[in-house]
Amino acid sequence: MRQKLVKNIFTFSKIALLSSIALGGVFYISHQSVAMASTQNIANKDVQIPLSMKGNFMQSGVIVGKTAPFANISFGEPGKEPVVFNADRDGNFVLGLDRDAATTAELKITVQGKTLSKTLNIWARTYKVTEVNGLPPAKVNPPDSAMAKIAADKEIKTRAWTSLDPYERGFLETFRWPIDKIRITSPWGAVRKLNGTLQTPHYGVDVGAPTGTPIYAPASGIVVIAEPDLFYEGGLVGIDHGQGLISYSMHMSKVDVTAGQRLKQGDKVGEVGSTGRSNGPHLHWSLKWHGRQLDPSLMVHPLQEYQGK
Ligand SMILES: [Zn+2]
What we know:
Elements: H1 2-11, E1 15-23, E2 26-34, H2 37-40, E3 52-55, E4 62-66, E5 72-76, E6 83-86, E7 92-96, E8 104-111, E9 114-121, E10 129-132, H3 137-140, H4 147-161, E11 184-186, E12 191-194, E13 197-198, E14 205-208, E15 214-216, E16 221-230, E17 234-240, E18 245-252, E19 254-255, E20 262-263, E21 268-271, E22 282-289, E23 292-294, E24 304-305
Parallel strand pairs: 10-12
Antiparallel strand pairs: 1-2, 3-4, 3-24, 4-7, 5-6, 5-8, 8-9, 11-14, 12-13, 14-22, 15-21, 16-17, 16-20, 17-18, 18-22, 19-21, 22-23
The structure holds zinc ion (ZN).
């Protein structure tokens, strides 16, 4: 099937790509023409670079693909510095899209000096404006006395964010919600006014739940950070699902895991709370990939096959 797919790329000068994304009951379809550039970038026709992908081809979405083992991959917006990394030993890779990513993204896969290039169409999303009031003023505009704690927290978090576990394959799983009963109190990506002041976008999904509600690993992975009480995040657990895809649970009242621990999907990691910058018990669930903020709630549905030929 993949061989046929690659052969077709050589055969046709112009290919219509169909990418479809089912999300929240809305079905998007886009047709995209891929010019001959795709084939011209392959200098040696004897080298066939396999490629299959599935995912959410939209802002803040995740794409999971398969190509040659250890292939060099470059992914970014036109005119911007790409993220460069390698597929794993089975050829699996992950791509992540920014909250405000451009409507096209450039994917380059290089194997033995030969490069396959693709331009992916990316759907734009609209984000809500939400107001959060009643936060402790010191958590919105931290006093000088908190600066040392915030700086120390940042160092711990930065180490975790750069985790690149070569063995985890959690990204191949369809994620589960980290808690059983889902009541979204603030959606991902919302522009936020905290106590009346405009802040950075909300890079998480807030799920309201009583203190003590169990929180589970959304997919398999290795714990890269497990902290009981950071200034902003409160109780924080981060799980590396492989290929740089790391999910976080925040504001936890109880942390049951430790850094370095390997988890299976559904293992309990702790309990809901209201620690850190929070105005009531809830789970703040977020997802990162190579420094980009992604929407974890897109991962709880099976990813859509990329229909390109
Ligand atoms: Zn939140």
